């Protein structure tokens, strides 16, 4: 099993990218939650991976965080959910958002994800309820712990302002890592969002 890869991005075209590791190019499929945070082509990247072996192909999936990979693996255990749909779910909602849908029995929100019908949404809620824990805490809580200190405060503020958790995380990553003040970090993230809208 290939557990992780570190290499240089040769190209990326959602949901696929090519990562060159020691002269070998690995084709990887990644959810949009990971894709949003990818650096530019030519830069180094570290991804956690999951290998799916089929009769006609070996497909490698890549994730920016362990929480995303764990959710992907748990989704594969749900009857009727294959890698393609699991990737679609991670692309259509955040880990926190999915966790909230399952714990609140929000079938309507899940069916808004492309490829998820009512029956699938019902199965996800029933079968994933007991799997949404990592070390005794909810997946959503674990995901939020990826942010620490001022990042966690800025993350909460951006979500409160209406940004999706995935987008809030991406905007924080775009900010100068030297920033150590929460208010400055929020301002920098909002400026990045404004620049992107004006582009």
Describe the protein in words.
By secondary structure, the chain is α+β, with helices and mostly antiparallel strands. It folds into three domains: 4-63, Beta Barrel (OB fold (Dihydrolipoamide Acetyltransferase, E2P)), CATH 2.40.50.140; 66-139, 5' to 3' exonuclease, C-terminal subdomain (DNA polymerase, domain 1, Orthogonal Bundle), CATH 1.10.150; 147-198, Ubiquitin-associated (UBA) domain (Helicase, Ruva Protein, domain 3, Orthogonal Bundle). It is built from ten helices and seven strands. The strands form two sheets. It has a five-stranded mixed barrel. The protein has a two-stranded antiparallel ribbon with strand order 6-7. A hairpin with a 2-residue loop joins strand 6 (133-134) and strand 7 (137-138). Helix 2 (66-75) packs across helix 3 (83-92). The longest helix has 17 residues, at 182-198. The chain is globular. The termini are far apart.
Structure in a nutshell:
The protein is an alpha+beta fold and 199 residues long. It has helices at 32-35, 66-75, 83-92, 95-103, 107-111, 118-128, 139-144, 150-160, 165-174, 182-198; strands at residues 4-13, 16-21, 24-29, 44-53, 58-63, 133-134, 137-138.
Which CATH-level-2 architecture of the largest domain? Orthogonal Bundle
CATH topological fold name of the largest domain: DNA polymerase, domain 1
How much strand?
A: 15-25%
Rounded Rg: 17 Å
Distance between the termini: 42 Å
Number of helices: 10
Q: How many independent structural domains? A: 3
Helix residue percentage:
40-55%
H/E order of the elements?
Answer: EEEHEEHHHHHEEHHHH
CATH-level-4 superfamily name of the largest domain: 5' to 3' exonuclease, C-terminal subdomain
Mean pLDDT over all positions: 84
Shape: globular
* DSSP E strands, number: 7
Lateral arrangement of strands in the main beta sheet: 1-2-3-5-4
Low confidence ranges: none
CATH class of the largest domain: Mainly Alpha
């Amino acid at each position: 099993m290939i557990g992780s890869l570190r290499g240089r991005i040769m190209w990326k075209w959602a949901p696929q990218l090519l990562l060159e590791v020691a002269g070998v190019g690995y084709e990887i499929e990644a959810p949009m939650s990971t894709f949003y945070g990818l650096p530019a082509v030519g830069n180094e990247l570290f991804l956690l991976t999951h290998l799916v072996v089929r009769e006609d192909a070996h497909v490698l999936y890549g994730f920016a965080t362990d929480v995303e990979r764990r959710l992907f693996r748990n989704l594969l255990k749900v009857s009727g959910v294959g890698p393609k749909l699991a990737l679609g779910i991670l692309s259509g909602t955040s880990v926190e958002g999915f966790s909230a849908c399952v714990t609140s029995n929000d079938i309507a929100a899940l069916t808004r994800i492309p490829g998820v019908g009512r029956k699938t949404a019902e199965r996800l809620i029933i079968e994933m309820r007991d799997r949404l824990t990592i070390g005794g805490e909810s997946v959503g809580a674990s995901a939020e712990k990826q942010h620490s200190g001022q990042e966690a405060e800025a993350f909460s503020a951006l979500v409160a302002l209406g940004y999706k958790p995935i987008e809030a995380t991406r905007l924080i990553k775009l900010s100068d890592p030297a920033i150590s003040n929460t208010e400055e970090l929020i301002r920098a993230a909002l400026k990045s969002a404004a620049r992107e809208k004006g582009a």
